[in-house]
Amino acid sequence: MASAGTIVGALSEYHLYARRYAPFKSFGGGFEGDDRLYSTDLSKSSRTVGMVTLGPKPSTAISGKGYSDGSAWVGPWEVRKKIPLGKIGTATGTVKMTISDARLGKGWVSFTMYTEGNLPLKDLVFHKKIATVIDKANQKIRSGSRDPQGTPDIDTFVDIKVTYATRRITFEGVVRGDAFPNAELFVMDCRANVFGLLDFRTWSSEMGPLYRLMGSGRKNVFAKFSRIVEIDDRGFFTGDYKKHPPLTQEKWYNVVF
To answer: Which residues of 153-163 are buried (b: 16+ CB within 10 A; e: fewer)?
Structure first.
């Protein structure tokens, strides 16, 4: 029998996705949202995406990247219901992704994935002077933040431990940072089988960016997850892996600013 942490003849590597998306048609006073709820479809848009590649066993190297699908100015949705408005100045922000505190044990690996993503408002609709004022306020709260763009960043910290065993893998951890907008975590094997880890939904309305994104929220734990997926002897997901992950709905009285 294979020992813990060993998958006999394993072929599959795994891709961990952490996505932040705005479920609204427009948000933040008129920016194009994602108009959706939880999804593992990679063609669905997101505000920020962090992706980490894991090998079929703990000792395999970890790598990753971050990106965004961008946004455009479309006007507040209540206005658009009555007045047709087109998109103005579609722009794609940048997402910085880092992997830190990587640790390796007998049959397990743990690390923190951090994504910091913004939207260049000064390139879309804000006057540069207004954007500069927002930049200065943001820098006071979070000195050393990278390249401010006239909007506070969406910060997401995923502290995760992955434990490998015969015929199963356990994914457990917490998510810290800004509890706006929604968050979804899922893992994909190299057959494109997807296993969901987290479906977090913010309490805040579409105006959330105006009061919930200042600072990094580094100490704000807003979700936890722990799920076990069955695998075959080559490391591919099997069993009931398509089951929707538990819903974590933020309550207004748990909101941390």
So the answer is: bbbbbbbbebb
